Amino acid sequence: MPSIITEQPEITPGVSVIICCYNSAQRLPETLRHLAQQVSSGIAWEIIIIDNASTDDTASIAAAEWLKYTVPGAGFTVLSEPEPGKNYAFKKGVKAAKYSYLLTCDDDNWLASNYIEDAYRLMEASPQTGALGGMGIFNPQLPLRQEIADFKARYVNGSQTWAESEHWVYGAGSVYRKGVLDMLIRHNWQQVTTGRKGKSLICGEDVEICFMIWLCGYKIETNDSLQFQHYVAHSKQNIDYLLKLSYWLSYSSVLLVSYYTIFNNEDIKVVTDRWFLSAGKALIRNAGSLLLKRISSWKKLTVEQRMTFLSQYGTFISLLKNRKRICEHNRHTKTLLATINEPAAVK
After folding, report:
1. Coil, helix or strand for 132?
2. Which of 34, 151, 251, 302 could form a disulfide with 314 if both were Cys (CB 3.0 to 4.6 A apart)?
3. For the chain, which residues make up each domain, given as ranges?
4. What is the reported pLDDT for 196?
């Protein structure tokens, strides 16, 4: 693991809950109700809602909903970020946050009543932890649509056993050390991922944040005692949604090769060019195989076959469109890491 970079001014102890929202008016009330039930035992905390170019009344609903509750000592702020993209909303939240730990709560995450208190104490007990993940529990809107019954694992659900070895946790329910993100913002770190824009399912921004925190020398950990319900509305309980997710997960994963080549000390251009050729060949082979089986209709394919094809297609299209941008971002990241690792930057 890289050495810890400690360019961090003093920050007030506490937890800032950041909720990035796009058209969240229907989902926010229950999420805020669970936050109002937090038992924080004197820990300072706040909620920051960022309305990311919503076309509904997210902001007014959020403000009105929180007024229903009396939560002593908990701050509440609603901000607007007109630039579409979850990264832009999150960055605004980071800058506005008052406290030492940033808890990312999606608009469909219902945190257990001890989540904030336990997250704070776990981070305080482990100064080397830069990002801490929790455990999402699949909680579908009922009745559960049977077409997705066999695909629960494709939603945020279960223990994040990969966290320490693969250096990332999903954004939902995760806790970041604010000082590290403040430092990266001061050094003008630019993410290669954008996060979701409106109805687009492009993702990976949470993984990218973890990768950068790890490259700054901090541990990426998870703790199953931090639990939240991941409410999945009927609008997401369908095969079409999962198929789109398969495409965008693969598309987004390609962007993150910018970091993997840094981990493995590889040449980014060689890796992306080689991957582009192999991805194209794999896509052609799969399409040819389906034709040989005389499967003439998309609907006649199994769900798994369609997911596999769209995953391969997402990889190929992302490499086709983004190889140059990935290489440029790789150079940016290496330069930034070299700058913040200079002795003058370490205090």
Report:
1. strand
2. 251
3. 15-233, 257-345
4. 80
